[in-house]
Amino acid sequence: MISIYLQGDSWAHRLPAGVKLLTVAIASIVLFQMVSVWVYLACLAAVVLCYASLGREGLAQLKLLRGLGFVLVILLALHWISGTLYDGFVIVLRLVVMILAANFVSITTRLDDMLEAVQPLFRPLAVFGMSSRKPALGVALVLRFAPHMLLVYGLLREAWQARTGSRNSWRLLAPFAIQSLRMSDNVAEALKARGGSEGLSR
Predict the structure, then answer these.
(1) What are residue 15's phi and psi, to 5 degrees?
(2) Of residues 200, 188, 133, the one with CA closest to residue 2
(3) Which of 115, 132, 150, 185 has the fewest CB within 10 Å, making it most exposed?
(4) On the CB side of 121, how many CA atoms lie within 13 Å of its CA?
């Protein structure tokens, strides 16, 4: 199965998955209340330090932002046109911090550990005779592969730029959709080979 998990024994790897997910969730809620650019710059520095603590491989993960560049520029331009450039900086920094924080959890947490951490949230579904493991797997897969899809888009954009000189185009949507469907098939086949959601275990 495609994985962005970085093998290692750092402090982040040893931290329980539930603690990491809860920290990111609470931080996201708090950050939505903040409107100071300086707060976000401080948070960005803290997140980058977390990546740096993983060494060279950790810092290499920051290339995830290349796939986001176009979207962030569009957001900033729209706020500039509407006369709210400062708000644009706040929104862009908020997105960058939250995405990098979520990706940090993904690269330092095994899928099985993430699944076990998310599953208790869905245990009330057992009252209705539904499995809590399947929706937990869905959430874990979204958390795991959203950063990976940004990387895929970034690679497609670089290939497009090398061929045409243009940085972005709507024509990237088709190959991106194909890559997404292909990855979905690969993940589905890997899950099927492991016995589905019930087959994922330690």
Answers:
(1) -70, 135
(2) 188
(3) 185
(4) 15
Number of residues that this document lists for the chain: 202
Give the whole-angstrom CA distance, residue 152 versus residue 168: 14
- Give the integer Cα–Cα distance in Å for 117 and 53: 24
69-75 contacts, C-beta under 8 A, 24 or more apart: 70/157, 70/167, 70/168, 72/96
pLDDT tens readout for residues 63-112: 777 767 777 888 788 888 888 888 889 988 988 898 889 889 888 988 78
Q: Which amino acid is at 53?
A: S
Per-residue tokens: 140:
């874990």
- In this model, does residue 190 exceed pLDDT 80? no
Q: How many whole angstroms separate alpha carbon 7 and alpha carbon 4?
A: 9
Cβ density class 109-141: b for 16+ within 10 Å, e for less = bebebbbbbbbeebeeeeeeeeebbebbbebbb
Element (H, E) at 135: helix 133-164
SS (H, E, C) 98-131: HHHHHHHHHHCCCHHHHHHHHHHHHHHHHHHCCC
Q: Which of 161, 156, 150, 172 is nearest to 61 (CA)?
A: 150
